[in-house]
TrEMBL record:
UniProt keyword terms in alphabetical order: DNA-binding, Repressor, Transcription, Transcription regulation
Gene3D superfamilies noted in UniProt: Tetracycline Repressor, domain 2
Protein name: TetR/AcrR family transcriptional regulator
DNA-binding region: 34-53
Domain HTH tetR-type: 11-71
């Protein structure tokens, strides 16, 4: 019983660390979120904080996983085969929220580059996250194509990759130029998808 209780306390403390880290990074930015600052925010030493994670990179990867969990609660779980309209609403909502937490966007963008190394702790996170996102988008697009609401000149998987590329690329542009409206631009891509099938495919037009 004691060991089970200790495990539960450890899980709770780890969750507290991640919740607090999200707040600190959103408030102070990625540069202001050193292990030292995060440890102080939860009343631990740096060694005490890293007791719950194997490394700083694993800590930051866990923070991104926690962010996804929080966003799913706030904007809806996009892994539940939503309709294209519902998926659009949730996806654009997340992008709009990201503009309010630049520190987390910085963290995501930096780790995304570093995670190109298969040995990086965040590598599996980005591969799995990207695959899940594309699967959700492609499924919603495929169902709308079957209904005749989207032209079939481009396959669903490619459309999903385009939407993901637009969202990820916009984050990099926005970090350099915060006047960019990421949400409006991503929403415009969905508007293009919603154009009449014949018009979007370029067929049956004079």
């Amino acid at each position: 019983m004691a060991s089970r209780g200790a495990y539960a306390k450890g899980v709770a403390k780890r969750d507290e660390i991640l919740e607090t880290a999200l707040e600190v990074i959103a408030r102070e930015g990625y540069r202001g979120a050193s292990v030292k600052e995060l440890a102080e925010a939860v009343g631990l030493s740096q060694a005490g904080l890293l007791h719950y994670f194997d490394s700083k990179d694993e800590l930051f990867t866990a923070i991104l996983r926690k962010r996804d969990e929080v966003d799913s609660r706030r904007f809806g779980d996009l892994d539940e085969k939503p309709s294209l309209d519902r998926m659009r609403e949730g996806f654009v909502g997340i992008v709009r929220h990201n503009a309010e937490v630049p520190g987390l966007v910085q963290l995501f963008s930096r780790l995304a580059v570093e995670a190109g190394d298969p040995q990086h702790p965040a590598h599996d996170y980005f591969v799995e996250r990207s695959a899940a996102l594309r699967g959700t988008v492609a499924d919603a697009v495929a169902r709308r194509q079957q209904e005749g609401g989207i032209g079939d000149a481009v396959d669903p998987e490619t459309i999903a990759r385009i939407i993901q590329a637009v969202a990820d690329g916009l984050q990099l542009q926005w970090l350099q130029d915060p006047t960019i409206d990421m949400a409006a631009t991503v929403d415009a891509v969905f508007t293009l998808l919603a154009a009449p099938a014949a018009q979007s495919s370029g067929r049956d037009t004079p």
